[in-house]
Structure formats: structure tokens, C-alpha cells
Amino acid sequence: MSIPSFEPPRRVCRPRRPERTIFDFPTAQSSLPLIRRILADLQAARVQRGHLECRFRRLAPTPETSAERRRLTEEAQAARRRVHEHVQELQRLGTAVLDVGLGILGFPTIVNGGLAYLVYSQEDDAIRHWRYRDQPKLRPIPEQWRSDVLQPSRAEGLSVS
């Protein structure tokens, strides 16, 4: 008879990763009106947080300013939470936030069998570039992608000419 072991099992069951949303160019482009509104709210919350933190740093820590400093701290924390909520909302929509400060998002897609992003910058009115997930180099969107009508879940990927 063997003694029971209380060691953790060698085979650990890992939770399944949620399905990743894969975008094609037309689908990503059509989602831009919603994305723009969320990004605008995100940037407004970031600016407000920055102003509040700046005002907080300028106030000298004295008994007379303690109530004002406490109020500024609470408002800055609320703005931080709003920033976090907007980032989470963008992630729930399937996008990857590549740079919060510049308002740059990536729409996951497959290019030549590899994970890539259709890159949208808040400064642009449309998606103009793409890049592989692990490479910073931006490439222009090929004209043929603009006319392709692919299903968002299609895993075969886009081809680059």
C-alpha cells in the first residue's frame, strides 16, 4: 500500500484562452466610428488626470490645502479608473492598445500565416498601416485589402504582394 501524495499534480489543467478576434480590413474599418468615440473618451480622461496631478503637485502640503489635495487625489483616481475602463472596453472589442498616449490601436489579423495588426492611429481618419505583432515597422495597407471582403473569423489570412 502506498502513502498518498500531497504534491500538486504534474499535469496542470490550464484554463482555455478566450478566442482571439481576427479582423479583416473592411471589418476593422467599419468599427472605427465606435473606436474613435472610445479613444476620444480615453484621451479626455488622460488629459484630465494629468491636469489634476499637476495641480496636486503645485499645492504645498499645508493644513489649509489638505482638503483640496484630498479632493484632487480622489478625482485623479477616478480619472485613472476611467482610463483603465476605456482600455478594457477596447480590449473587449478585440483590439490591442499599442500606445495609450498616442491613441494607437491594433486590430489583430493574420498576414502570411503570422499574427499582425491593422494599425489605427487616432490622428488618422482611416486605417493606413499594418505591422507584424512582434515587429515595430509599419507597412502601408495594400490596395487589394481595401477591396477584399473576408469573414472576420477566417484564419487563412491575408496575403501580401
Separation of termini? 67 Å
Report on the biggest sheet: 5 strands, antiparallel
- Any idea what the radius of gyration is? 22 Å
Principal-axis shape equals: elongated
The ordered string of helix (H) and strand (E) elements is HHHEEEEEH
Strand order of the largest sheet: 1-2-3-4-5
Summarize the amount of helix as a percent range.
40-55%
How much is the average pLDDT?
Answer: 84
Looking at how many chains there are and whether they match, the oligomeric state comes to single chain
| Portion in strands | 15-25%
Low-confidence runs of at least 5 consecutive residues = 149-157
Structural class: alpha+beta
How many strands? 5
Continuous helix count: 4
Task: Describe the protein in words.
This protein is of the alpha+beta class. The chain has 4 helices and 5 strands. It starts with 24 loop residues before the first helix and ends in a 14-residue tail after the last helix. Helix 2 runs antiparallel to helix 3. Strand 3 (114-121) and strand 4 (129-132) form a beta hairpin. It has a 5-stranded antiparallel sheet with strand order 1-2-3-4-5.
